[in-house]
Design brief:
Elements: E1 5-9, H1 24-35, E2 42-44, E3 47-54, E4 57-64, H2 71-82, E5 89-95, E6 103-107, H3 115-124, E7 130-135, H4 144-148, H5 154-177, H6 179-186
Parallel strand pairs: 1-4, 1-5, 5-7
Antiparallel strand pairs: 2-3, 3-4, 6-7
Helix pairs in contact: 1-5, 2-3, 5-6
Length: about 190
């Protein structure tokens, strides 16, 4: 069996944020846990955590409960405990630079102002992790901070289950085929 993949969904804890654009990473991790029949996520590593498997590969599911700006603290604890190298971390996050519903796998890169990614890079020692960028579009008006902390619009909510399902398939592609092959195939869809 290959080394485990630490799959991190970024978001903010609590019911107030449950349906926010910024919490879409949590939504994808929850979908993966359900798809794979994982045990209930439990409190560990300053987050909610469960072990699962897909395609004969161990998957470590993590939703940091530290709030977005401190996500890297939780991820770094899980990495250290399981001795997971940064290259075996996959982070699912909201992305304003992509239209709603567009998904992209990427290795490395900058933060584009995303505080969760900033925290990851600072706490985990670099940016050599795989990202599943979940497009949420840019706000038409107002501040980006308010936009990401708002709920999806009604038309987006209708499409959200399908987009979350496609994101889960992208994670499964990485587990089954590795990041490079998965990126080539997934990003052309």
């Amino acid at each position: 069996m290959d080394a485990p993949l630490l799959i991190v969904g970024l978001g903010n804890p609590g019911p107030k944020y449950a349906n926010n654009r910024h919490t879409v990473g949590f939504m994808v991790v929850d979908a993966l846990a359900e798809r794979w029949g994982a045990p209930a996520l439990r409190d560990k590593f300053q987050g909610m955590f469960a072990k699962a498997s897909f395609a004969r590969r161990e998957a470590l599911l993590l939703k940091p409960m530290t709030f977005m700006n401190l996500s890297g603290d939780s991820v770094q604890r899980a990495m250290r405990f399981f001795k997971v190298p940064l290259t075996n971390v996959l982070v699912i996050h909201d992305e304003m630079d992509l239209p709603f519903g567009q998904l992209r796998l990427k290795l490395g890169g900058g933060t584009a102002g995303h505080n969760g990614l900033k925290s990851m890079i600072q706490c985990c020692g670099g940016n050599d992790f795989v990202r599943l960028r979940f497009g949420i579009d840019r706000p038409r008006s107002g501040r980006p901070e308010g936009y990401v902390l708002s709920d999806f619009a009604a038309v987006e909510r209708a499409e959200l289950p399908d987009v979350i399902d496609r994101a889960a398939v992208g994670v499964e592609d990485v587990l089954r085929d590795g990041a490079a092959l998965a990126m080539n195939r997934f990003n052309r869809r």
